[in-house]
Design a protein that fits this description.
The structure is a single chain. Helix 1 crosses helix 8, helix 3 packs parallel to helix 4 and helix 5 crosses helix 7. The protein starts with a strand and ends with a helix. It folds into two domains: 141 residues, Rossmann fold, CATH 3.40.50; 166 residues, L-2-Hydroxyisocaproate Dehydrogenase, Chain A, domain 2. It is an alpha/beta fold and 317 residues long. 44% of the residues are buried. It is globular and about 55 Å long. The mean pLDDT is 94. A hairpin with a 2-residue loop joins strand 13 and strand 14. The chain contains nine helices and 16 strands.
Length: 317
């Protein structure tokens, strides 16, 4: 078996998200080697060449285009390949197209790489994460998706703006589907340990329900708004990919709301969705119990049921 190089990553798919992720990872200094793969080999070559010209201003590394044979020793294979979300289209609308693409990609990854981690970034990320786990045959802890890491960052950003505090001091998660049925786990949200509602009142805000609904809706609609304005989202998700890779490469045991296959948490099994998880060198090393009120539990179960329904009606592996 090929020995894994902990400082090597592969990116499959060199569209907006893949190339932005490669750029973010190049600047991060996390990896000494990144290989880019795309169905359009010229596109992968061009992106690698363009990014590599910035290396004199960064840290020494190799970034190049290649084939699946070049991923055998990659510690993380980041899969961004798939049809993009168009204006007016939901992430779940992409199911059939992108599962079809995964049926050709994932077996190729599994053929050449036996011990790395598969990080799914393409949408709908929850259904594609489940499909990737089944198509690869990898242990389920080593196949997970970017999930609601970006949604949670959007929530923290908006709360930070609303409250006039550093968004890094805000601790709050979006959970469930990365999509229209996602929910904000308000009952566990806090600002540096102070319950959110109490902190809001300290800052002079008392219309909690109204503000919470507006902020949650703004998070949910962020992607639609960006896609309407500029046709695609890629910078935010690229930074999310970098953050997840940091947790893996440095074995940080960071708690991130990645998409992983559920094992009975809140009665949910047999589908992938986002819940706070400990992320380290072995991938998803365990889920973190999160306090939810009854309404939030019901919304989470409904989110899982929506994903299950779409998977059962639209996906044949």
């Amino acid at each position: 078996m090929v020995e894994i190089n902990s400082r090597k990553a592969a990116i499959v798919g060199c569209g907006f998200v893949g190339s932005a992720s490669a750029f973010a990872l190049m600047q991060s200094g996390l990896f000494s080697e990144i290989v880019l793969i795309d169905a359009d080999a010229d596109k992968a070559y061009g992106e690698a060449l363009d990014i590599s010209h910035g290396l004199p201003f960064s840290k020494p590394m190799q970034i190049y285009s290649g084939t699946y044979q070049d991923i055998s020793d990659a510690s993380i294979v980041i899969v961004t390949a798939g049809a993009g979300q168009k204006p007016g289209e939901t992430r779940l609308d992409l199911v059939r197209k992108n599962v079809g693409i995964f049926k050709s990609i994932i077996p190729e990854i599994a053929k050449y790489n036996k011990s790395g981690i598969i990080l799914v970034v393409a949408n709908p990320v929850d259904i594609l994460t489940y499909a990737a786990a089944k198509l690869s045959g990898f242990p389920e802890n080593r196949v997970f998706g970017s999930g609601t890491v970006l949604d949670s960052a959007r929530l923290k950003y908006l709360l930070g703006e609303h409250l006039g505090v550093d968004s890094r001091s805000v601790h709050a998660f979006i959970i469930g589907e990365h999509g229209d049925s996602e929910l904000a786990a308000w009952s566990s949200a806090n600002v540096s340990g102070i319950p959110l509602s109490k902190f809001c009142e300290m800052r002079g805000y008392f219309s909690h329900e109204e503000s919470m609904k507006k902020i949650a809706d703004d998070v949910k609609n962020s992607a639609y708004e960006i896609i309407e304005k500029k046709k695609a989202t890629y910078y935010g998700i690229a930074m999310s990919v970098k953050r997840i890779c940091e947790a893996v490469v440095r074995d940080e045991k960071s708690i991130l709301p990645v998409s992983s296959i559920q094992k009975g948490n809140f009665g949910i099994s047999g589908i992938a969705l986002s819940m706070p998880a400990i992320v380290g060198k072995n991938g998803v090393e365990g889920l973190v119990p999160i306090e939810l009120n009854e309404e939030e539990k019901s919304s989470l179960i409904a989110s899982a049921a929506k994903l299950q329904e779409v998977f059962e009606t639209s996906v044949k592996l």
